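thought: fold this chain, then report.
action: predict
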Amino acid sequence: MTQPGPAEFTPPPECPVFEPSWEEFADPFAFINKIRPIAEKTGICKVRPPPDWQPPFACDVDRLHFTPRIQRLNELEAQTRVKLNFLDQIAKFWELQGCTLKIPHVERKILDLYQLNRLVAEEGGFDIVCRERRWTKIAMTLGFAPGKAVGSHLRSHYERILYPYNLFQSGANLLCVQKPSLDDVDSKDKEYKPHDLLQRQNVHMPSTDTSAPARRAKRMKTESPCIKQEGGEECDNRPNLRRRMGSFVAKPEPEREIQIQVKQEPVEIKEIIPEPEKTKSRFKKNNPPPPVSVVDLYVCLVCGKGNDEDRLLLCDGCDDSYHTFCLIPPLTDVPKGDWRCPKCLAQECSKPQEAFGFEQAHRDYSLKAFGEMADSFKSDYFNMPVHMVPTELVEKEFWRLVGTIEEDVTVEYGADIASKEFGSGFPIKGGKFKVAPHDEKYLKCGWNLNNMAMMTPSVLTHVTADICGMTLPWLYVGMCFSSFCWHIEDHWSYSINYLHWGEPKTWYGAPGFAAEQLEEVMKKLAPELFESQPDLLHQLVTIMNPNTLMAHGVPIYRTNQCAGEFVITFPRSYHSGFNQGFNFAEAVNFCTVDWMTLGRQCVDHYRLLNRYCVFSHDEMVCNMAMKADSLDVVLASAVQKDMHLMIKEERELRDKVRKLGVAHCQLFQYDLLADDERQCIKCRTTCYLSALTCPCRPGIQVCLHHAHNLCSCPISNYTLNYRFTLDDLFPMMNAVRQRAESYDEWASRATEIMEAKLDKKRNVTVFRALLEESNENSFPDNDLLRQLRLVTQDAEKCSSVAQQLLNGKRQTRYRSGGGKSLNQLTVEELRSFVRQLYNLPCSLTQAPLLKELLNSIEDFQQHSEKLLSDEVSADAVSEIESLLEEGSQFDVLLPELPLLRERLEQARWLAGVQQAEDLVTNPCGLSLDNMRRLIDRGVGLTPHESIERTMARLQELLTISEELEEKAQVLLKARPPVSLEMLCSQLTQMEGVSAYLPNCLLLQDTVNRAKEWLQEAENLQVGGQIPVLSALADMILRAHAIPVLLEPLEKLETLVSEVHSWKESAAKTFLIKNSPFTLLEVLCPRWEVSSSVKKKRKVKADCTSSGKKKLVKLDSMSDVERALADSKDSASAMFTLAEVRLKELESLCSLRAANESKLLPTADCAALKVCVCQQPAMGAMLQCELCRDAFHSVCVREPTEPRGTEAWLCPLCLRSTRPPLDKITSLLSSLQRIRVRLPEGDALRYMIERAVSWQRRAREVINSYNFSLTSQERRGSSPTHSLHRTTGHSRKQLSGSPSWCQDWNVSEQDQAVFYTEQRCIPLQGLSAEVEELMVEGLLLQVSLPETQQLYRLLLSGPPTTNTPHTEHTPYLTQKHSSPQRERDAITSAEKKAKRRMNREETEISERGMKPKSKKQRMGSEKRRERKAASVSASDVSQSEDSGEDMTLCPAENCLQPEGEEVNWVQCDCCNRWFHMICVGVSAELAAEEDYMCVTCSTTNTGRRK
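observation:
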């Protein structure tokens, strides 16, 4: 950016505002003297009268007509005016050469050419800046950002616009200089619109219209196609210009429609010469040439030739001619406007600049018309009603407009209107305004400005002439933005301004002591203005931004004067301001006694500036001296001192001119002449006591200070004119001295005691005595008396305060309420107070005691500072507390006390942190809540390095902990879950964080659980064991509770899903529709055959004795399911199912015996309750082949149900659909492919093994039956010895024939008639082994052909082998058991269970015959358990053959081990036995895991594929 625009205005501080009471308001001069010590420090003050003081407005509004001043705001500001003057000179320079100045843009900002020119000049000029490459430095000084090549642009603009002008100013001939062209400009550059020179010279142009001048215009005009302008139409594109214009001027159109730009101010209207005509007038025309032409006489002053007349250019000033191509640089086109040759250009630019002043408006306003214009301007400018515009907005906009060169806003100000002509705003005696009776008090009121200047306390009463604006009030009618510039009052007097009505007036003031500083700052910032006008600040035409003055150290104050308020300015106080809107004010000057000294200094100052005086100060002093008797003593004393200086200076001057040779002298009464007729022609001072004249210049005189500036005549020809001789002046001074003698003597004594030092100081009682003396002599109020009174009051107050401080030291440490006194002194105030006690002109007895107290406090401060400078430590708590105890005893505001309290809090906080971090007291570490609590406490502590370090550490720990907690929480709640590696990486970040993080701990636990789960899953895959469904389900359930992405989980879920699908398939295969039984209940042996059967619990002696495993009681199906689920391998499950099978057989044996007894002949058929209906047996009956219970046919069989030849089972015994063996074998194969163990699978496997075993035994029985039948046929024997031995109660009825219950009761009437629809296997004479075989076949939930074959065989009563004749007894009792049946009944699962229990025995009974011994031992246990009676020879031989087969190892390369102990292992699939050493299996592995031989493994692998 270029020179930055004016920053937003910052209002200065407010000046004092006084609101006097009616008593204080009664005497204005006494009140002003009272507030002067305060108000003169700010230069201005505001006085707000009592609310009831409301004087009437007495001005004759109808007669009041005035011509206001025209003010262009940006011409008022000193720095802006300097820039505008410079731009006017540049514009004039180029305009006279036929060029238009256009302000270039750099970085989209208007370039400040004045600042650029000044900086280049300060750097040594264009050549030095280019040679030393300082353009970048200048660009940065102008406010441009570095690194944008702005310096090259600035050089180009300077060389094009400013360099020719500077060369011209230096006296160089522009014809010899390569002058750049201004035509090469950017389209964004704005044309500069110069000021009207006539306006600057206060020359009034005749107005062509009566409308108000344009209030606002753009000085920088954007170059655009020139168009015809209508009257009042704006020439720029600013959208808000219309609403900010006060009014517009209708411009007269030119005679021809020519593309020219029309200026908007009426004073700038010039007679426009059409451009084509001007162009033609500059050239000599050759076609047709006149016969005799004066143009032929013109020749180029450069080349001296007259040829090329069509290129001969004439100067509009002197008519000199130049070829366009001879100029440097050559002109390609005809210059627009006037063109001046270099000679005329030098003459025009060397004209001296006229002094700046305000132009008077061209119309006369009445108060009403001016008000309408003012209100219209403000409302249009701000686009809102005048009363709604904030004063702050107006103030900021005023200073913005004052500081800009792009916008011209013009306002008018009705200033310095004589009240004598139109009447004052205050009522006066004898005036035309009729005062109401209740307002007559305002006629004599001292605050009436018509009375104030001429009241007795004002020394201006001794000025004989009426001075308009000084002794007579002036009126001021303002509008928005109208301003009064920086100035001080004439003769550095007081001024008072009263705002009668209207909008506020904003004031700015500087104190009198800063007057010279303000002048120096303005001269420094705008030296060009003061070079031409040294007394510029006395012209009231220059203003400067208060912020600029304040930036240079000048104290500035402000206030808004509202209607009904006074503003008083003090001697030599610069003040300025502006009006917020339409208002009416009145002002006058006055001088008091204290002004006398400043008044004489002002005259001397005026003499240096050659400024005229408004009145003669010497004449006023002499007038007062001639009335010495009427003066009060204070004024007489001041007059005497001033006359002493006056006479002394006059004597020296007269002696000086006498020595120069002036011999003639005469008495001359200068007081009879008007002031302008007796001014010194050199310094314009009003002469009164003496002057020099010369006969050669009658009526002209000089003061004695400028004796050499009168004329060229010898000084001896001069005449000294004097008003008084020195002998006349001394008596006048003595008269005044006598009048002030009593006061002077009192003042001398008062001054002596006021200036006493050290031990010469007097007691305060002496000061009181002087005050009493002044009251007795009625001395008027003056500075010395006020000072004496003030010192006395200060001494009394200091004495009282000192005594309170000393008393407070002895009092209790704490006051009532537990706090210190509110108005305590600080140590510095106490120190200042002690100094004040010693600096008082009087002596006080409390001063030494307070000095001792101060020393004690300083010792305390030193100790405290030493402690506070050390590091914060918990060990310093006791020391800090002792210091606090000591400091609280002083009744002084000690800054160390709060610091010590803060240090105590810091030490305690550090101790709390250490305790919280102590692992002994807090082993879990810092929790987040504790950290936050400590940090919250630490935030409230005063910053300290130790605290900051600890806070930073805690904050870092908290930030890390919160981040870890948040990440852990996010990871734990992530959906889908994250991987274990990510959780582990997060856990690595937790290492070293000594904090209690619940989420992180939960994350750690989650990782541990995930690792355990994965390890468990890996063990399932690696160990070779077949997992159990319940374990898999439990793992899946636990995996779902672990928020970690577990890769094996999907496989396990798929596996479990396949298992469940398998269970559904198995259920469809086995379960009957709407079956009440579960799949496991169907597949497992029936443990609950009858609830009436007494449950037994058998415990194997070898298992119990082993002490390693106790059998689980199997009292319910849930127990069976639990036992199967808890089994480690299939062998254990098979063992459990074998136990259930034994229970099933035992229970069923008892049930069959009980049900069979129901149908014995001894039974009472009428009392017998059978069937599901629990009614007596009658009619068609059915007997269950399995449980042998009887049922009514109508209750259990549908009429349409076919009567088959298969064994009929009751609803309780028919538990499944009994699928064929091959179908359930395929189910088992599919389950083996899944490789998951489940209770249903184990039950199915047990069922298949049981079915296969039963099928083998059934075939043997069937084969033996067929063999027996064939042998009987050969021998021709009758089947007397058969498997079914008949008795005397044999059944003779066939199926479907009615049957009587014979021989049950002797009485035929008691016998019930019923018959069986279907025959059952007769049990009479049936061997227990065959019956058990048939029962077990019916228990199997498998459809086997052998079942039907055996059923039909037993139903027809097959023959039996040659066995001893025995009665039919229930099977599987403890009395009857067959070793062969025992061996055949033991399945592979039972063998494996027995093998696993026997494997733990340490000794083996037989060497090399382990399987055989196990079989024999298992058979003997069962025999002992069942107490079998005999063993058949065939079964024994079969057992021996089977044992011998088992001694052969089926391994391909059997090693045939020998020794006392040979270990065997059985395949869980094919049930074959192998030497452990031949298949590479250890005893531990065989005991813990299932074994599958190579053949079975290959077969299963092929099936899975």
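thought: worth noting. The longest strand covers residues 407-418.
final: tokens above.
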